[in-house]
Design goal:
The protein is α+β, with helices and mostly antiparallel strands. The protein contains 3 helices and 6 strands; from the N terminus they run E-E-E-H-E-H-E-H-E. A 4-stranded antiparallel sheet has the order 4-5-3-6.
Length: 81
């Protein structure tokens, strides 16, 4: 969605929460990327053996997240701005 007056694209910031390996393919699917370097590191840490803690990762995208698809990977979209 674009601001018609200025042609500025909408930027979505959202938080996903889950345990286990982060579903990397969702970055491509939702055209998303980690909001910060610390969020990128957090994603990487989910692939460490025995890391079953629940994680919250903040992402940014040019489109609204597909909540149902995140859920199919066991991750939930917690908030959308």
């Amino acid at each position: 969605m674009r601001n018609k007056a200025r042609g500025i694209p909408r930027v979505w910031t959202f938080v996903v929460v889950g345990a286990g390996p982060f579903p990397i393919d969702m970055l491509r699917y939702d055209l998303a990327y980690p909001k910060s370097e610390s969020n990128a590191s957090l994603i990487e840490s989910t692939f460490q053996p025995r890391n079953r803690a629940t994680h919250s990762v903040t992402l940014v995208s040019s489109k609204r997240p597909t909540e149902e698809r995140w859920g199919s990977f066991g991750w939930a979209v917690e908030s959308v701005e």
